Amino acid sequence: MQTITLNNLPEGRTITVGPGQPLLLLAGPCVLESGELGWEIAREMKDICARLGISYVFKGSFDKANRTSLRSFRGPGLEKGLRQLGRIREEVGVPVVSDVHEQGQVEMAAEVLDIIQIPAFLCRQTDLLVAAAKSGKTVNLKKGQFVSPWDMEHAVGKLRDGGCDRILLTERGASFGYNNLVVDMRSLPVMRGFGCPVVFDATHSVQLPGGTGGSSGGQREFVPTLARAAMAAGIDGLFMEVHPDPDKALCDGPNSWPLDQVEPLLRQLLAIRAALDEDQNG
């Protein structure tokens, strides 16, 4: 299992991800609702992670192109969203990650983002993967809900063939009948076997896709359960959508984790990780 290092980050910092390295946390609102909200969440999360010794990257989508309904809020769009992310990166001093959905978005996004994220629905889109690989950025590749963990080796191969050697693989649950997901924890060591650090998406894994008719539902109460299980299974990073008031969030509120409950959960997860490390090293 290799480690990867993110360079040229705000405040002259670097982040190394992988075995023996600090936990990586990708966290923020599902979608950029406003520059002010994103700034608030980024600042709070930076402070929490500094106290806990966690490597933090702010996550916020400039466009959610896969919303259930045409009437759903999608975000500020590419140009405005990247300006908001750039401001957060510069003023708060944290790296940023966001999704790209089309080849034409990659070049502009790479000018701002530290990590380019490939949404789960698009994990097999060859041209998009190759464009992301050629950007020179770290790529966070989410496993599709419809893809087995071992089949992700082919998606990783597309990125590597495109010239990308800094790849994160994220598990976010698999389709389980209609409007439901289930997490197979075996996928974490399987995907780690491809030589990439593995991230667990604790909030999308409790999503109920299309579960409320015109939008997705979620079972927020199970976020801690799955996050603890994933940490015990062995992960290098955690992905969470967080919001000061999830019930009023404009996207993915039912599965977002409350901002004021983030630190207690992270402390639990770090305790599990420490126990696992002690057992492996002892």
TrEMBL record:
Instruction: Give the GO molecular function terms.
Output: 3-deoxy-8-phosphooctulonate synthase activity
Which reactions is this enzyme annotated as catalysing?
Answer: D-arabinose 5-phosphate + phosphoenolpyruvate + H2O = 3-deoxy-alpha-D-manno-2-octulosonate-8-phosphate + phosphate
- Which Gene3D superfamilies does this entry report, sorted A to Z? Aldolase class I (3.20.20.70)
Q: Name one GO cellular component term.
A: cytoplasm
Its pathway? Bacterial outer membrane biogenesis; lipopolysaccharide biosynthesis; Carbohydrate biosynthesis; 3-deoxy-D-manno-octulosonate biosynthesis; 3-deoxy-D-manno-octulosonate from D-ribulose 5-phosphate: step 2/3
Q: Which residues form the DAHP synthetase I/KDSA domain?
A: 14-268
Name the domain of life this protein comes from: Bacteria
Pfam family membership, one: DAHP_synth_1
EC annotation? 2.5.1.55
Subcellular location, principal: cytoplasm
Q: Does the keyword Cytoplasm apply?
A: yes
InterPro entries per record: Aldolase_TIM, DAHP1/KDSA, KDO8P_synthase
Keywords, in A-Z order: Cytoplasm, Lipopolysaccharide biosynthesis, Transferase
Subcellular localization is given as:
Cytoplasm
Instruction: Spell out the family assignment given in the record's similarity comment.
Output: Belongs to the KdsA family.
Classification via NCBIfam families: KDO8P_synth, PRK05198.1
Q: Which HAMAP family match?
A: KDO8P_synth (MF_00056)
Protein name as annotated: 2-dehydro-3-deoxyphosphooctonate aldolase
Q: Which organism is it from?
A: Desulfolithobacter dissulfuricans
What gene is behind this protein?
kdsA
